[in-house]
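Backbone description:
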Amino acid sequence: MLDPSFIFSLAGKLAMLGWLSLLVALLLKPARPYAFPAAQFVIPAILAVGYILLIWQGRAGFETGGFGSIEAVRALFANDAALTAGWLHYLAFDLFIGAWISRDAANRGISPLIVLPSLPLTFLFGPTGLLLYLAARAAHRPKEIAQ
């Protein structure tokens, strides 16, 4: 049986390790920020397994909650297993998006200095960081090669 408090604490540390590896890769190897596969796939996969296990463990307590109204969501997240699973959901998806931002920027030749602000924003405020990166990406004009 998983302890949701322990998993919550462990997952936060694991996600932070993934974010730090993304930042280090971005700053040290700007041409290849995807050099750390842990942040791209391994850590999000571990978080996903934790998510599935917590959903399975807490399934009996989910009858009172749901997604049809704010009250139902509140009732669902009153269950610690569901609340922790929701947290792992955010951690996994935000890190996966951060890794995608890093890969996409490298493939497009976008400067790490332009990408850098979007990563902490994605970590802290998911969609806000993604939106900032998408705006930077839209404004980016690839350098033309001199002939």
Q: What stands out?
A: The mean pLDDT is 88.
